[in-house]
Structure formats: C-alpha cells, structure tokens
Amino acid sequence: MAMSEARFGSVEDVADALADLQEPDGQAEAAARARDAVLTKPPGALGRLEELAIWYAAWRGDPRPGLARPQIVVFAGNHGIVGQGVSAFPAEVTAQMVANFAAGGAAINQLARTFGASLDVHPLDLDRPTADFTQGPAMSEQECLAALSTGWAAVADDADLLVVGEMGIGNTTSAAALACALWGGAAADWTGRGTGLDDTALSAKAGIVSRGLERNATLLGDPMGALRAVGGRELAAMAGAILRARHARIPVILDGFICTAAASVWEKARPGALDHCVAGHLSAEGGHGRLLAAIGKPPLLSLGLRLGEGSGAALAVGVLQGALACHSGMATFAEAGVTDG
Ligand SMILES: O=C(O)c1ccc[n+]([C@@H]2O[C@H](COP(=O)([O-])O)[C@@H](O)[C@H]2O)c1
Ligand SMILES: Cc1cc2nc[nH]c2cc1C
C-alpha cells in the first residue's frame, strides 16, 4: 500500500479514530428485546443466546437480523523475540503456515467452510521480523501505523460479522508482554506455554517478558506505545481491523490470547471501545482468562483450544448463527397459538 493511501499516517490519526466511535442502535436493541420476550420459549430459556442475538441486532441496527456474510481475516507476522528461544517451533513455521492457509490445509480453512465464512490471509513483512523487544521497541512508530492501516483496510465494507485471527511464531510472548503492560500484575501471570513449552522454558519466557517490559518502560504508559514496544505487526493489524469494524458497525468475535491482547489496547485507551466485540472462547493459554476478566468479556466457548488462526472465534460463529436463527426465525406465542406463561 502506498503511504498516501494508509489510513493512519500518525499516532494522532489513531487517536482521532478512537475518539469517533459508532454506537449501537438503541431502537433496534429495544425492538429485539421486545421480540425476544414473546418468542415461544420460557423467558431466558435460551440462556446467553438471547443477549447475544440482541447485542448483534443492536450493532446491525436490525431487530430481526440474519447473518449472511461473516468474514474471517488472519494476519501473520514474525517476531525478533523468537531468537531468545520462547517458542517450541521455529520462526519459519509462520510462512509455512501461510502457504498452508493458501492451500486450504489449515484448521481455519475447514472451520471457515463449515460456517460459510470468507477467509482472507495477510502476511505482514514475514522476512522482516520485528525487533527483539528485550533490546528496544519491537516496531518503529511507522511500522506499527502501517500494520494498523493494513488491518483497517482488510475489513470488507459489506461484512456482517468479523473474526480476526493470527499466525506468528513467538507471538504469545508479545501478547503476554502487551497484556502485562496494559493490565498490570507480574509477567508470570500473563505468560503461558504457547505452542508447548515445558516448565523450564516457561519460567525463562516469563523472565524474558519481564526484561522486555523493563527495557521499554518509557513507552508503556500509553496503550499505543505498548503495542509498538512489545507487540507485533499481526497484533497491530488485528487492532486496526477491530477498530474499523467498530466504525462500520460490524460485530466482532474475538479469538484467543493474542487476539484479545491486541483488542484490549483499545479497551485500555477508551473503556467501552470493544462493546462491538464478544469473546468467542477461552483459550488454554495461561493468562487468557485473566485478560478476558480485565476487559469484562465472558467467553462463549471453552474447548481447550490453543491454536490461534481465529479458530475458536470461528467456532463461535456457529453459536451466533444458532442464536440468530432462533431469534429471527422462531414464532411468537401469538403466532403459534401457544399459551403464554
Ligand atoms: O490463540 C491462542 O490463545 C493461542 C495460544 C497458543 C498458541 N497460539 C498460536 O501459536 C503461535 C504462538 O505460539 P508461540 O509458542 O510461538 O508463542 C501463534 O501462531 C498462535 O496463533 C495461539
Ligand atoms: C503448526 C502450527 C500451526 C499454527 N496455527 C496457528 N499457530 C500455529 C503454530 C504452529 C506451530
């Protein structure tokens, strides 16, 4: 993308976008709630599906919505921190998995097809990893803005649901550092096994997260500064896509630990900025539960997944499809001639 086309040329552009957020449609929400109350079921019997459908109706401005064009976008990035031995897999797997996505062989390809979602994959400068954040900031301001802009541009205007996912060997280390910078606590609270570290490597990883936070301390007071200091290109791109979705009133299903860490930059900068998002699932990555609690989002699913790629969120698309099929398709008590309770 030419620089002149980039959505974010400066940090001020990002602050402006965050200051100017769309809100849900209160009338559609009230009408959806009224409809939910007269559907042929005991009140509340569809549990969290009911609030889920009403939430979606409010963001779409339609009290009886369908879900026709779910879009999954996966961003891939490489991380200098991998040189410190923080992953069970080598950095080359990031590009190899991008090839696997293109060939249709990854889990997310199967899940996208299962739930009728489009799938776009954006590799971000894979042959130019971010800097090792124990040595200095992972990204320059311009690198971070370029990745945010790529994410912003990746969202289809006519999508009616967005799932953002990622692929990036080493990115659970970045996500742990970002979560710790934003939400406080000890590095070990946020550090998990990623692709499968043993106990020794896990405690070394927490030490590396801690060193990275000390090294970048001057940048961490500001959420955007934290994103560029210890994040990565795919994290910034996910954040850009999530912000664009808010501007287009496209509801978002968040995926696992890395996706949630990236999204939480906006929640920290402006509480409520993620009101258009739900948490798709609870990842097995240590720290994800704590992070979901920090942003106040209970997960829809808890299946022990720790894959990334948007996989947990893609499964939750099926839950939302079910919620909307019931909400928009069920008969009312009056229509069905069923006696109200
Ligand atoms: O989504 C999650 O919660 C999640 C948890 C653990 C690992 N991952 C995936 O595994 C990769 C990062 O793991 P690691 O060990 O290389 O930091 C990256 O490609 C992620 O998509 C993803
Ligand atoms: C094989 C593999 C597939 C992945 N998909 C998302 N993260 C991943 C990490 C690895 C190692």
From TrEMBL:
Active site: E309
CDD domains xrefs: DMB-PRT_CobT (cd02439)
EC number(s) recorded for this UniProt protein: 2.4.2.21
Any one GO BP annotation for this protein: cobalamin biosynthetic process
Molecular functions per Gene Ontology: nicotinate-nucleotide-dimethylbenzimidazole phosphoribosyltransferase activity
InterPro entries tied to this protein: Nict_dMeBzImd_PRibTrfase, Nict_dMeBzImd_PRibTrfase_bact, Nict_dMeBzImd_PRibTrfase_N, Nict_dMeBzImd_PRibTrfase_sf
Record flagged with keyword Glycosyltransferase: yes
Keywords: Cobalamin biosynthesis, Glycosyltransferase, Transferase
Reactions listed under catalytic activity: 5,6-dimethylbenzimidazole + nicotinate beta-D-ribonucleotide = alpha-ribazole 5'-phosphate + nicotinate + H(+)
Protein's pathway: Nucleoside biosynthesis; alpha-ribazole biosynthesis; alpha-ribazole from 5,6-dimethylbenzimidazole: step 1/2
Pfam families, alphabetized: DBI_PRT
Family stated for the protein in its record: Belongs to the CobT family.
PANTHER family named among the record's database cross-references: NICOTINATE-NUCLEOTIDE--DIMETHYLBENZIMIDAZOLE PHOSPHORIBOSYLTRANSFERASE (PTHR43463)
Role according to the record: Catalyzes the synthesis of alpha-ribazole-5'-phosphate from nicotinate mononucleotide (NAMN) and 5,6-dimethylbenzimidazole (DMB).
Name recorded for this polypeptide: Nicotinate-nucleotide--dimethylbenzimidazole phosphoribosyltransferase
Species of the source: Palleronia aestuarii
